[in-house]
Design brief:
The structure is a single chain. By secondary structure, this protein is an alpha/beta fold. Helix content is about 50%, strand content about 15%. The chain folds into two domains: about 120 residues, HAD superfamily/HAD-like (Rossmann fold, 3-Layer(aba) Sandwich); about 80 residues. The strands form three sheets. It has a five-stranded parallel β-sheet with strand order 7-6-3-8-9, with helices on both faces. Strand 6, helix 6 and strand 7 form a beta-alpha-beta unit. This is Phosphoglycolate phosphatase. It comes from Flavobacterium hydatis (Cytophaga aquatilis).
């Protein structure tokens, strides 16, 4: 029997030839310094006339709200749309900022994100992926996004030398769909079958979110493992 060991966690993937992994709070967690510095940058960049505490509260609220909406609709709210919602809630006239300005802010945010990189949740992830792929099993990444786009997250996976383990990566901002939408799991199934013929039950999706990851995968027909941190 083959077991994945993640610290004290064990996942039995004996009967699976392809594994799909969520990203946030499954493989990585946010650097504790990043969000506070990002919010301060937001306040300064857009000349927001309020306290940083208020900015923190509004950003946190819309982060959770948009994530919830994405899970309910199965679609994806664009990063710049989230910016506009936050700016409006902070009494900033959104007509003063076109998307070119938002793109400049995102580029500065990305630099900050790459300076204060997310941290791997488990030290043995590279070894874990190596063990899986050495058994001729394949791996993909399937992640919902919000403030940080898939293109930026790819850079993080490259930094940790994990990108080469993934046969493909799917991000909600790039496909316009979010977990638990059946259509995004269908994308996983289609791309996995381009590698080798496989049934839905031959795929195990691993994630931390009971709605997006566990229920989404099970409802589509995959097997699933819910991580409990």
């Amino acid at each position: 029997m083959f077991l994945i060991k993640i610290k004290s966690l064990k996942i039995n993937y004996t009967n699976h030839s392809h594994l799909s992994f969520d990203l946030w709070l499954t493989l990585i967690k946010s650097n504790p310094e990043f969000k506070s510095k990002r919010n301060l940058l937001f306040k300064d960049f857009f000349d927001v006339d309020t306290t940083i505490e208020k900015v923190n509260d509004v950003v946190r609220y819309y982060d959770a709200l948009c994530n919830n909406i994405n899970e309910r609709t199965g679609l994806n709210i664009d990063t710049y749309e989230i910016y506009y919602l936050i700016l409006s809630a902070l009494n900033v006239n959104i007509n003063d900022y076109d998307t070119t300005k938002l793109e400049l802010f995102y580029k500065e945010t990305e630099l900050l994100f790459l300076k204060y990189k997310p941290e791997l949740l488990y030290d043995n992830i590279p070894q874990l992926f190596k063990e899986i792929t050495q058994q001729e099993k394949t791996i993909n990444l399937l992640s919902n996004t919000a403030f940080i786009k898939g293109n930026t997250l790819r850079k993080i996976l490259s930094h940790y030398e994990l990108d080469s383990f993934f046969k493909f990566q799917i991000y909600s901002d790039e496909v316009g769909l979010s977990k638990p939408n059946n259509e995004i799991f269908q994308m996983v199934f289609n791309q996995a079958n381009e590698i080798k013929p496989i049934t839905k039950k031959g795929i195990l999706h691993v994630g931390d979110n009971i709605v997006a990851d566990y229920n989404g995968a099970i409802n589509f027909g995959f097997d699933a493992h819910l991580l409990k941190l």
